[in-house]
C-alpha cells in the first residue's frame, strides 16, 4: 500500500548551543502536492528543510521518508535546487546536465532523453550549446533547477526559486512547477517570500516562526480564518440610505467593520463570500437596490503578517 505521506516530521528539534532553531515541529507532507513552507527570516524553515532531506542531523525527533527512517531512506528520491545558483561556468547547458546525470549514474540512453526534455520544458533548448557564463540570470536559475531534476527525484525542494526572475521567467517557472505535480506526480517543497507565488502554487502551506509551526492548511482556508479580511464595497442605487443600511448590516455576526467611503459602503470581514447572501438580503429587506458590488479578497500576505507580525527581520 502506498503511503499517503511522503515526508513525516515528528517532534523535530534542533538547537545550536542555547539557541533553539526548530522547536518540536510536527508536520506531514502528502505525496504529489506542492507544499509551501513560509516564515520570516530566521524562523527556522531552512533548518527544518535541511533536516527533512538529510542535510542536517536533528538534535531530537524523527524524520520518515516514504515511511522509512531517513537514515535508511533512498537519498536519490530527493532533488534540491538551492537559492544560491551553483553551476560550472565553463560548461554548456547540455554539458552541465550530462555531467550531473553521470554523477547520479543515470543510464546514457535515459540521460539523453532527460537532457532534451528538461531543456525544452525550461525554455533552454536554444541555449543548449551556450556556455553557462554567457547565460542571463534567469536562464542560470532555470538550468539550476534542471540539474536538480536530472535524476528524476520523487521529492523536489525549491528554495526561493523565483529570486531575481523577471515576470516572464517567473511564469515559465510556475507552469513548470505545476507540471511536476500534475503530469509527473512529484512532491514539491517550496520556500518563498513571494506570497502570490505561495498562494498560486501551493496545495497546502505551513507557516512557521521562532522554530514553531503556527498553521498548516490550504491557502483558501488560511485566508478565511486569518488576515485583515475581505473588503466588500457596495454602491447603493440610493446612496442617501447608506447610514440606514449600515445600521442594519451591523446586526450580521462577525463583521469586523462597516464604514462609508466616498458614497459607498465598505464592509471588512473574513470569508466575505460566505456572508454575501446575508449582506444582500439585508439590503433588499430595506427596499434598496445595489447598483454595483465589488469584492477585494483577503490576501495570503495579510495572513502571514497577522501570524508572524510586522517587525522587519534580518
Short account of what is shown:
It is built from 10 helices and 14 strands. By secondary structure, the protein is an alpha/beta fold. It folds into 2 domains: 5-223, P-loop containing nucleotide triphosphate hydrolases (Rossmann fold, 3-Layer(aba) Sandwich), CATH 3.40.50; 229-297, 2-Layer Sandwich (Alpha-Beta Plaits), CATH 3.30.70.
Query: Mean of the pLDDT scores?
Result: 92
The side-by-side strand order for the widest beta sheet comes to 6-7-8-3-9-10
The biggest beta sheet is recorded as: 6 strands, mixed
Q: What is the name of the CATH topology of the largest domain?
A: Rossmann fold
* Helix content percent band: 25-40%
Give me the number of helical elements. Answer: 10
Overall CATH architecture of the largest domain: 3-Layer(aba) Sandwich
CATH uppermost class of the largest domain: Alpha Beta
Strand content: 25-35%
What order do the helices and strands come in, and which of them pair?
Elements: E1 5-16, E2 19-30, E3 34-38, H1 45-52, E4 60-65, E5 68-69, E6 78-81, H2 93-103, H3 108-121, H4 137-149, E7 155-159, H5 167-182, E8 187-191, H6 195-201, E9 204-209, E10 212-217, H7 219-225, E11 230-236, H8 242-249, E12 257-261, E13 264-269, H9 272-285, E14 290-296, H10 300-308
Parallel strand pairs: 3-8, 3-9, 6-7, 7-8
Antiparallel strand pairs: 1-2, 1-4, 4-5, 9-10, 11-13, 11-14, 12-13
Helix pairs in contact: 2-3
